[in-house]
Amino acid sequence: MPPSEILVNSMHKRTIIILLHVFLIFGLSGCSQNSEATPESMTVTLDLQTPTSGWSLEIQHAWLDPDEQIICLSQLTPPAGMAAQVISQVHATAILETAEKPIRHYILGKTWNWNSDPDVSFIETIEQIQKELDNAQSIVIAK
Known about the structure:
The longest helix is centred in the N-terminal third of the chain and has 33 residues, at 3-35. It contains 2 helices and 8 strands. Helix content is 27%, strand content 34%. The protein has a 5-stranded mixed β-sheet, with no helix packed on it. Strands 1-4-8 form a 3-stranded antiparallel β-sheet, with no helix packed on it. The protein is an alpha/beta fold. The protein is globular.
């Protein structure tokens, strides 16, 4: 191969490598911008004690009431089948597309007769809080 062809091939490879680096840098910086939390989002975390293992907890809906408080509705689901009879912890997290505000938690599905968290209200049906929801706006929960 003549020296002029070697020089052209070498320059061509360098150009390709430089272009790949440029695309990688701009591509990764774009990804990091999209994954950052915005000022208009907040993370909601809820931990509860349950009487047995195997329970699950999911934040299902969120609303913003006229007093600028967030209403979160979560669902407790009992274990399917046998479960260890030991007080356990369940955890739920959701990202709400709203700015940081005070939260009231309502939980559906509790079957035991002791209160595992004084900061939440356990309800049997959503109708129990329907008056609060009538004037509230739905908040998107990011998955």
